[in-house]
Amino acid sequence: MTSNKILGIDLGTTNSAFAVMEGGDPEIIVNSEGDRTTPSIVAFTDDERLVGKPAKNQAIQNPEKTISSIKRHMGEEDYTVEIEGEEYTPEEISAMILQKIKRDAEEYLGDDLERAVITVPAYFSDRQRQATKDAGEIAGFEVERIINEPTAASMAYGLEDDADQTVLVYDLGGGTFDVSILDLGGGVYEVVATNGDNDLGGDDWDHAIIDWLAEQFEAEHGVDLREDRQALQRLKDAAEEAKIELSSRKETEINLPFITATDDGPIHLEESMTRAKFESLTSDLIERTVEPTEQALEDAGYDKGDIDEVLLVGGSTRMPQVADKVEELIGEEPQKNVNPDEAVALGAAIQGGVLGGEVDDVVLLDVTPLSLGIEVKGGLFERLIEKNTTIPTEESKVFTTAADNQTSVQVRVFQGERELAEKNELLGEFHLTGIPPAPAGTPQIEVGFSIDENGIVNVSAEDKGTGTSEEITIEGGAGLSDDEIDRLQEEAEEHAEEDQQRRERIEARNSAEAAIQRAETLLEENEEVDDEIRESVESAVEDLEETIDDEDADAEDIEAATETLSKELQEIGKQLYQDAGAGAAGGAGPGAGAAGAGAAGGPGAAGGAGMGGGMGGGPNPGAGGPDAGDDEYVDADFEDVEDESGDDDGDDGDDS
Q: What does residue 489 show for φ and ψ, rounded to 5 degrees?
């Protein structure tokens, strides 16, 4: 049965979390490994694909085929990961993570899930947002909304508090940094300003430790561990662990035995790192959060004294230097009642509840993080929608041609804050044709921008004289066509079926092996079993072992063979009960009768275990599965209507 619930997903750089509304409150869903967060890691082995904790656990042995921090590449036009000759886009890798989230959530809830709200960093561009939406659709979700992570976190914080307040959300995740300022009150969450750095996160703190360890080791032993993929993976794991330990301790030991070897034998890495040393190595990183924070305050028109509460979001905010820096910047001690790893997913679930009708009296007013506009004469960037504009929104301006008898114009759409268009991010471009020949400055061409609730941009251009128009939804180079999404969805569904079949086979095998072990124990402990029964059990064991080893055998084949063995084990139980009864009738002493009953208890238990496995028994629900700037465009097509006409009122718009 398909649930009408909308899943809230925090698709993180290093870890992801997901939640759903239950009884009016958002609840984190535990994954199939029993954890509240899922590593955003995908690995490929010879015979299967691993996602989450199983992928992370084998990363040292398989670094070449293990993919992490893929979120940092979302929206990159030509970025792919090559595994065994196959190329995967960031959207496809992210979809694999989302598939696991979808499957685990469905197992937890006992229903199919189709709809989701997925969060993104507030400073994500349109291209990155579209890529995230594509990933969700490939995974089989209908993505109801893309919302900003700091906004989601503030919803989790403010759900139980209707007081009017201004909140600063400082979100330092594994790969991105955002800061947002919101006005909260009466169930309204209004984002006033946002800023950030999409290339700053906890991974960078890890790399600082990695580089320090590698440089120390090279100075002592003359070997650069970063050139060895396996050694580098061990350094990554050790650096992450050291970072976490130094959040609660003043010093940590880093020991990596047999990290490499030379002609003289194996070499071990042994280093001590103090929190003071760690903070000195990463002081430049924490300083990179200062300017975006100050810029957000300036854009909002607030002083630090106007901030009522500071929320820390993202696992990286557990580092003491973060709280210290934020308190120094704002003069306000950050709140401690928000779980930095879970707040975003909880907020996404609340937004899902709003969209699904489970949550009333909550209004989310988010903003676009960067200005949107087009290239105009001279290669300048003409803004149509300013940054921090509340969305959804739409704006339009009138432009004109820059040359005589110009019959077409090229609209090049950019996003950013630089004054030269080529210094900003090109989102897309299209042509408007069919303009009647006329002197330069005569045609009136209206360019309109709109941004929907997901932050996705639509651009149109219309020749007001002829009514000719063109429009596109900006998807950028990373956007996928419907056909591509359909194809990738089919591939994802195929993998999902394979994963489910693999899981069922592993569960059946586990039950079968337990039945074999029990059978062997029973035969060893009960020599009085009749030869005929013994031979039948041994034959059933042999058949089951052959079935397990048969790569073509599926879960049903193994379960059937396990059921056969279970029935044979019941014959042992019958004989032992009969023998015990005969002994009692013959006047055997109480001790003998007790012994016989005890022996009978054994096969009774064995029969239960066998039936449990044969009938599909296995791990509990939710815990199953395998471990498991071109010169051509400088003289732009458009020219400013205002300049050409001498119109000073600003209503007619600008050149393009």
A: -60, -45
